[in-house]
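Weekly sync notes, structure subgroup
Attendees: PM, AL, DS (notes)

Item 1: joint prediction request from the bench team. They want all two components modeled as one assembly rather than separately. Inputs as received:
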Amino acid sequence: DTEVTQTPKHLVMGMTNKKSLKCEQHMGHRAMYWYKQKAKKPPELMFVYSYEKLSINESVPSRFSPECPNSSLLNLHLHALQPEDSALYLCASSHPPGNTGELFFGEGSRLTVL
Amino acid sequence: AQSVSQHNHHVILSEAASLELGCNYSYGGTVNLFWYVQYPGQHLQLLLKYFSGDPLVKGIKGFEAEFIKSKFSFNLRKPSVQWSDTAEYFCAAKGVYGGATNKLIFGTGTLLAVQP
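Output from the run, pasted for the record:
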């Protein structure tokens, strides 16, 4: 079992819908991440929050909007997505400062955009 | 540019066979190195890591990896694989300096299938 909890596990949405993915960790980590993973591909970094501030945005389209309400929670708001956005969305957390690169991943939210 | 390459995209072995998965990195500085594993239907989890010190590191489930600085390599090994080792294996690297802006770079992954 992982200590990073993601909800929902599965989400199907239309291109005009608005939905959110949620992530929670209680390990006291102060860096949190969103990754996108397509089948048989490595995870691709989308966003990094460090001490609740957005530190990296990998030129992600604005239809993806991250939010970090507090040190334990990370949201990804979805709006007007495209079918090619269908993927597994992974949340991860780690200890900064220094941020060694050791990440703790959630099980992911599998998103299907119709 | 920073990159991680894994030479084997798909490996099929019989149980009890030995395993070696290749990983090379390209980075202009000191790096931390990792192998992550993703079992079917499960989350990505850390298999082992190298930060400094003894270049031969041991991880969970009998896996080990050797850091060879001169070859920019961090190959994963296991003397005798089991059916339960069937999974996707990702090598990853991150620069030591630069803090949160220095990203973890993943290789393309190796899908290992172990036949009983």
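Discussion: Chain B has no helices and twelve strands.
Action: AL to compare against the crosslinking data before next sync.
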